Amino acid sequence: MTEESVIELPPARPCLSTDDLNRLIRQQGLGRAIAQAMIVDQIVRSIPLDEQETSELVDKYLAERDISNDSTRNTYLEKEAINEDDLVWRATTARRLEIHRKHMHGPDVETRFLERKLELDKVTYSLIRVRDAELAAELYQQIRDADADFAQLAPIYSEGQERLSHGLIGPVALNAAHPEIVKRLRIGEPRQLFEPFFVVDIWLVLRLEQRVVAQLDQSMREQLEWELFDHWCQERVRTLLAGGSLMPQSEPTP
User: For the segment 163-206, what is each residue's pLDDT rounded down to a tens digit?
Assistant: First the structure.
């Protein structure tokens, strides 16, 4: 193998040729993983960190692995088959991705939040499904008049899986239910009982128990930034797998 065509696994130890690597990528379906790695590497290389922050991140990375001196550090590098540059890369990647994520996708979080509102809002509701309209009306009346409740009636009468949970469903995403159920839960107040209604081939008795409205707090912002990053990343993966090339990254300094 010529020097130009050698692939190393441990540093400075030739392992296989580029032809062999290409064959393994094709045969074992490694193309997507390598494309993702290329994208992450491009981001990491494009975002500089000052020496102090880099040193702090490396120290933190090592401390999390109980590496406290040169001896254990060298043992770790040998075990992982990496060098000092690789160590810095591992220790700082999360921070660099965070900087990229906030710069690239932070401005779009509010729009993403509104687009996904139905998925992010959570509801808990009680449900009974029966095929007979008169039975649905009778069960509704019993619940309305407080003669019985879902917990008593669902295990006996309901024909859906909710009979196993005493009629209770959730908390689940608001849009996870049938559109006719969602329509009622969106406008309902907690503990509101809806009159029986027909969906496809069955009658439903429904009560909204609780609705938890999603808030655009810091945790939600980070979740949506990661979602936007993942979508952006997968688009670039598709570009690479289709034979395209990545445009250079324009990134902010931290």
Answer: 999 999 999 999 889 999 999 999 999 999 999 999 999 999 99
Nearest CA-CA partner of 126 in 60, 193, 198: 193
- Two structure tokens written together for 217: 């707090």
Total residue length of the chain: 254
Give long-range contacts, CB 8 A cutoff, 24+ apart: 79-87: 81/9, 81/10, 81/11, 82/11, 83/11, 87/58, 87/61
Query: What backbone torsions phi and psi does residue 81 show, to the nearest 5 degrees?
Result: 60, 50
Distance of alpha carbon 145 from alpha carbon 235, whole angstroms? 55
Per-residue model confidence (pLDDT) at position 254: 47
Is 126:154 a contact under the CB 8 Å cutoff? yes
Domains and CATH numbers, the chain: 3-110+223-241 (no CATH), 122-212 (3.10.50.40)
